[in-house]
Amino acid sequence: PPPSPPPPSPPPPSPPPPPPSSPPPSPPPPSPPPPSPSPPPPRPSPPSPPPPSPPPPPLPLPPPPSPPPSPPPSTLPSPPPSRLRDLSVELGSARDFAILAKAGVSTVPNSDITGDVGVSPIAQGALTGFSLTLDSSGKFATSTQVTGKMYAADFAATTPAKMTQAVSDMEAAYTDAAGRSNPDHVEYKAGVLGGAILAPGLYKFSTAVGIGKDLTLLGSATDTWIFQIAGGLSIAADTNIVLKGGASANNVVWVTAGVNSFGARSHFEGTILGATSASFITGSSINGRVLVQTAVTLQMTTVTKPSS
Prior knowledge:
By secondary structure, the chain is mainly beta. It has one helix and 24 strands.
């Protein structure tokens, strides 16, 4: 028999099922639209010219000044100004002398005197301790202790008349100053003036005056002080009179009825118009004039006549 035909081939295997399909990915969100370009800033307009400035308003008046604060109570005596204008004392020709005396001037060398020295009616013998040198004119003498001239009643003419007039003017000035009325201060501090500060004015004392500590006279160059002293005047050793505020020794007058005494190394200011004597102890000094009606004694004393 003929051979049997071969059996049929098995069918090919089925393809594997496709995997489950994934959902398609979401599309990306749309990009935001690009920002619109900003319009360019407007071009600035050219500045307008400023309007004319109005005239400035008138300045206000300054406020009135505030009154100054009240000063603390002062211990200074304050004489009424109306009395100050008549206090100057006219010395006449006595003003030309640093020392003028009727009974003599003596010195224990060496004194230092700036200004003229004179005695009258007494003669030149009352000028002791000076080692006088008579000028060739015979009208005056000189001394190494005096920067100035020395006069006496017995020198050659015209000196006697000059000295008589100077002494007369000194006495008149004493009478004038001692007789002033309406004092600004009477018995001020009972005459114990040490440590005080005195304003200008007329001071009257019925007793002696003592200066045991520095005394200050405070005022201007035109102010005047007159001290009317019925007794004596004394200033202690190493004690000073001090001028402040421009006060001038030319305008300080001490008119004394008693003896005037100036302690060692003391310093005094002003004109002494004395009815009696003035005694200066070793090393004392005065910026002023010593015009007395008896005698002056000096012990290594400095006397300086202030410029007029």
